[in-house]
Specification:
370 residues, alpha+beta, 10 helices
Length: 370
C-alpha cells in the first residue's frame, strides 16, 4: 500500500471520529443536564474511532466503556450510541462478531438499567437494539464482500499469470523449433559451401596456382556466416531468466514488501540450470508471499555450503497468515517449482510453518560449473 493511500485512510478515520463527536456533543449541548464530564466522555469515545483500523478490539472496548459511562451518568437519547455503533461495525467487519455482540449487550444493558422505567425508554432500547444488530450485520456483510473481492482479484491474477506462463512456454517452444529448422537447413548448406570452398583453395595452392579472390571471399564469408548462425541459435535456445535473487529482493522491497536477503557459505558460479532454478524459486516464493502472506516479513537465505559441499540450499520464509492446519492446494507455480527442482535431482519442501507463516526450502546439487 502506498503512503498516499495510508494518508487518505488516516484522514478519513479522523474525519469520521470528528463527525461522530460533533453530532454527539451537538445533541448533548441541548440537554440542560449535560456537564463537562459528559462532554469529555463523548469526546473520548468518538476520538477512539480514529484508531479503529489499527486496533479494532481496543477501540471497541474503549468506546463501549466510555459510552456506557456516559449513558449511566447522563441518561441521554439514542444518538449517544453513535460511537459504540461505529466501533461495533468495525469490529464485526474484521471478524470479531462475538466481541461486537457482547459490547452491544453491555451498552444496551447500561442504557436500560439507568433509565426511568417507562415505555419510552423501552422503545428507545428496542430501537438501539435494531441499530446494533444492523451494525453487526453490515460489518459482516462488508467483510464477506471484501473477501469476495480479494478472491476475485486473486483468481484474475492467477488466470493472467497462467496465460503469461503459457505464452512464454509457447514462445520458448517456437524458438526451439526455429532453432532446429535453422540448424537442420542453413547449417548443413553453409557447411557444404565452406567445405567445398576450402577444398578448392587447398587444391589450387597445392598445384601452385593463384587462388581466385572470389573463392577466398566465399570461404571467409561462409565461415563468418557459420559463426553468426551459431550465435543466433544460442539466443533462440536461451530460455533461462536473466537476473539474480538480490535483484528480485530489491524489486520486492520497492513494491513495499519487508524482505531480507542472507547469503552464506563459499559463494561461487553455478551451472546455468541451477542458477535458473534458484532464480525461479526465489521469484515464485516472493510472489506467493506478496499474494497470500499479508503484511508479513520475508527472509530469503541462500547457503552455498563449504568448498567441498556439492549442495545449495535456498530458504524463503515468511511470518504471514498461513496455517499448518489448512495447507494450501499447490498451484501452477508451486508445481512448476517442484518439477524444476526434481529435474535437477534436488528436493523441495513448501508448506506452512508450525509457528505460523509459510516456508519454502529447496536443496539443489551444484554439480560442475558450466
Amino acid at each position: 500500500m502506498s503512503g498516499r493511500q495510508v494518508d487518505r485512510r488516516v484522514l478519513a478515520d479522523v474525519v469520521l471520529a470528528a463527525v461522530v463527536g460533533a453530532l454527539g456533543m451537538g445533541v448533548a449541548a441541548f440537554d440542560d443536564g449535560t456537564d463537562a464530564l459528559d462532554l469529555t466522555l463523548i469526546a473520548l469515545a468518538s476520538a477512539s474511532l480514529a484508531l479503529h483500523r489499527a486496533a479494532p478490539r481496543a477501540v471497541l472496548a474503549a468506546a463501549t466503556l466510555l459510552g456506557t459511562a456516559y449513558v449511566v451518568h447522563a441518561h441521554p437519547g439514542p444518538l449517544s450510541a453513535l460511537p459504540v455503533l461505529g466501533a461495533v461495525h468495525t469490529a464485526a467487519r474484521v471478524g470479531h462478531r462475538g466481541l461486537a455482540a457482547a459490547a452491544s449487550a453491555v451498552f444496551l444493558a447500561g442504557y436500560v438499567a439507568t433509565g426511568p422505567g417507562t415505555q419510552e425508554v423501552a422503545e428507545r432500547a428496542g430501537l438501539l437494539a435494531g441499530w446494533f444488530l444492523c451494525a453487526v450485520v453490515t460489518g459482516l456483510a462488508d467483510r464477506n464482500w471484501q473477501a469476495y473481492l480479494r478472491q476475485t482479484e486473486e483468481r484474475a491474477q492467477e488466470a493472467e499469470r497462467t496465460r503469461e506462463e503459457a505464452a512464454l512456454r509457447r514462445a520458448g517452444e517456437e524458438r526451439l523449433r526455429i532453432a532446429r529448422e535453422l540448424h537442420d537447413s542453413l547449417t548443413h548448406s553453409i557447411s557444404i559451401v565452406k567445405l567445398r570452398a576450402g577444398v578448392a583453395v587447398h587444391l589450387a595452392r597445392k598445384r601452385g596456382e593463384e587462388v581466385p579472390p572470389a573463392l577466398l571471399a566465399i570461404q571467409e564469408a561462409s565461415g563468418e556466416a557459420m559463426r553468426e548462425l551459431r550465435s543466433a541459435l544460442q539466443v533462440l535456445r536461451a530460455d533461462e531468466p536473466s537476473g539474480s535473487p538480490a535483484l528480485l529482493v530489491e524489486r520486492a522491497r520497492a513494491a513495499g514488501l519487508a524482505v531480507g536477503l542472507t547469503v552464506t557459505g563459499d559463494e561461487r558460479p553455478l551451472p546455468r540450470a541451477v542458477d535458473g532454478a534458484v532464480y525461479r524459486i526465489v521469484q515464485e516464493a516472493l510472489t506467493n508471499a506478496a499474494r497470500h502472506a499479508g503484511p508479513a516479513e520475508i527472509t530469503v537465505r541462500i547457503d552455498y555450503g563449504g568448498c567441498g559441499d556439492g549442495e545449495l540450499t535456498v530458504d524463503v520464509d515468511d511470518d504471514g497468515a498461513a496455517d499448518p492446519a489448512r495447507p494450501p492446494v499447490p498451484g501452477t507455480g508451486l508445481t512448476g517449482m517442484r518439477e524444476r527442482v526434481t529435474a535437477l535431482g534436488g528436493t523441495l519442501r513448501a508448506a506452512p510453518r508450525a509457528e505460523g507463516g509459510f516456508a519454502v526450502r529447496a536443496r539443489l546439487p551444484m554439480g560442475e560449473t558450466v
